[in-house]
Amino acid sequence: MRPDFDIAIVGYGPTGATLANLLALSGVSVAVLERETAAYHLPRAVHFDDEVMRVLQTVGVAEAMADNVHVNPGMRFIDPAGKLLIDWPRPSGIGPQGWHASYRFHQPTLENLLRDAASRHSAITVRTRTDVYAIDEQTGHVRLRFENLAAGRLGSLTARYVVGCDGARSLVRRLIGSENDDLNCHEPWLVIDALLKRPRPDLGDHSVQYCDPSRPATYVRGVDDRRRWEIMLRPDEDGAVMSRPENVWRLLSRWIGPDDAELERAVPYMFHAVIAKAWRRGRLLLAGDSAHQTPPFLGQGMCAGIRDAANLAWKLAAVCRGEAGDALLDSYETERSPHVRDYIELAVRLGAVIMNASQPGGRDGQPVKMESIRPRLGGHSTRPDPEGRAAPQPLLSDGTRLDDRIGYRPALLRRPGPLAAGLSRSGIVDVADAALAPWLDEIQAEAVVIRPDRYVARAGGIAYCANWEDLN
Ligand SMILES: Cc1cc2nc3c(=O)[nH]c(=O)nc-3n(C[C@H](O)[C@H](O)[C@H](O)COP(=O)(O)OP(=O)(O)OC[C@H]3O[C@@H](n4cnc5c(N)ncnc54)[C@H](O)[C@@H]3O)c2cc1C
After folding, report:
1. What are the tens digits of pLDDT across the range 353-378?
2. Pocket around ligand 1: residues whose beta carbon is below 6 Å from it?
3. Eight-state DSSP code of residue 11
């Protein structure tokens, strides 16, 4: 039997919406099933990075998003005496990925842009107010059973694969039977969003981690007049009580008072650090918070979900189009799980600095300098550099951004010059441009093949690259 859709996505948060767009760009049909009516109207994530902006560029929403961000100058960790423990400046200019390294943003703006983009794809069918409650794996497809919450009616649909982008309490993860690997961080924090009523430039544009064991706290400058504080709760404090306005203003009193701002919300969260032990069982896969959760000290939870979507979409599409075997999907977990683990473990280590004000191994009196973190796909792979790393995105000689030239496809990148007969392969875009020369010189390669997710699949001689067959 022919399934109703190629892919069913459970959950229309940022991960599900990104995945739906990328799959539609690859020409496969998608059903998105989401319990809620609309995107969650309050922000959770406030930061994303250049690699995520590059995925948004592929989806077609980067320019609109760029009008709604604040470029983040960096993060500072200070001890109770005001001494700088860690300095993490972020470059102010456009970086190698073709975008700034770090952005502040308003999550509902991004989610609505992703949904608008999805609404322009006829290959995407979105069913909101639809609660998935069962998934049965059958020969050649899965059947999802759901309740239409508006009508109170039960229904079902079939798809070749289902991806659970259904968040931290994922049904799909439970159906896969995957337990979480617990990375030992379960901390109660109060998340407060405030809207400034008058300018307060003294609060600063940098994020600040107040590493004070008696009351660890984070300050984040949001877009426009939005400001975020995340404040750790003590074991004897009740989150519901601490969320009351009088207690919130008491906690905020060292920074602002009711004359400066109005409270948008104050919500207690338990920050967790967990990774699903299995991201796939047969035709069921996980992406986003269903597969991993991180404390937000690096602002990487949503970023990781969007990277999952970018890694998975082209593989699912290749399998659905019959261009690759089902085994290609196994590389999704082996590539993504160690990558996200690196970020989560670093977030947990930084959380320990914030909560204990401990100097993280720097020379006495000197703040530690954080370098940009960029783990490699598949963890500590033995593959030669730069395979498994994101390729840079230069402006090409005609001023076009590299990814815009390529589209959502693999590409052969090389210096200008004719390509020997027999080396061109259908489906791979050949980009021969002088703007690529500095990078090729640096990595001492004649050519590079990048996958649709912009990660380097092969680097070396032209024949080695141009004969790239294995979609891996
Ligand atoms: C305080 C805080 C600060 C954060 N800061 C950052 C940050 O700065 N940067 C960053 O990158 N990340 C940050 N994060 C993490 C980020 O918010 C999450 O990682 C991200 O929102 C997860 O997206 P998702 O699409 O995977 O899941 P979700 O956004 O949780 O979406 C899951 C969706 O699935 C739906 N669903 C669930 N079950 C079903 C079902 N059975 N049937 C139908 N629908 C279902 C839900 O209704 C929901 O819409 C932060 C998180 C918190 C809490």
Report:
1. 898 866 655 555 677 777 666 777 77
2. 10-16, 33-36, 44-48, 131-132, 165-167, 171, 191, 269, 288-289, 296, 299-303, 305
3. -
